[in-house]
Structure formats: C-alpha cells, structure tokens
Amino acid sequence: MFAYFVRLENVGIQSAQLLSRKWLIHDSVGDGENTEVEGEGVVGELPVIAPGHIHEYQSFCVLKSPSGYMEGQYFFRRADKSRFASDIPRFVLDAANALGPTS
Question: How many domains does the chain have?
C-alpha cells in the first residue's frame, strides 16, 4: 500500500472547482499492469479553490509489487463555467526507496 499527498494551488484569476479525476496506476508486477481509475472529486470532496489558495489531501493506492507509478488528470470548472484539465505529472511509487521507520 502506498500513501501519497497532493497539494493543489490555484494560480489563476478565477475560482476553480475540482469536478473529477482520472488516474493511470502502473504496477510493475510481471510485465507491468495498468489500471485506470476515474471518478468524481477527490476523497469524497469537490473543492472550490479560490485564486491564490491551496487545497491539500492525502490518499492511497494498493500495488501487487513494491514499485510502480501514477499519473493522470484533474478536471475543473471555473467560476465563469468554462472547463479545463490539469495534468498530474508522473510520480514514482517505490517501496525500496520509501522513508519509513528504522530499526
């Protein structure tokens, strides 16, 4: 299981509401296994982010192997009702290099 933390900052001039997301989760097991996850909002929320403000959340994913990656898109609606997508850059999930308790 991998936990991840996300920080979204609105650098625009209008408020924007996060409506949905789409993730590609790549599990490095075998030849590689891809799973697409789409859904409304994030962690049960449809946050409205005002200009200059931040929304943070944490979530998790389960992989069969000790490594993989995630990437995707968030889909927003501005205050003027126009819509846009924001790419989520790839980030690596790697248990071998994860920080954790030391013995």
Answer: 1
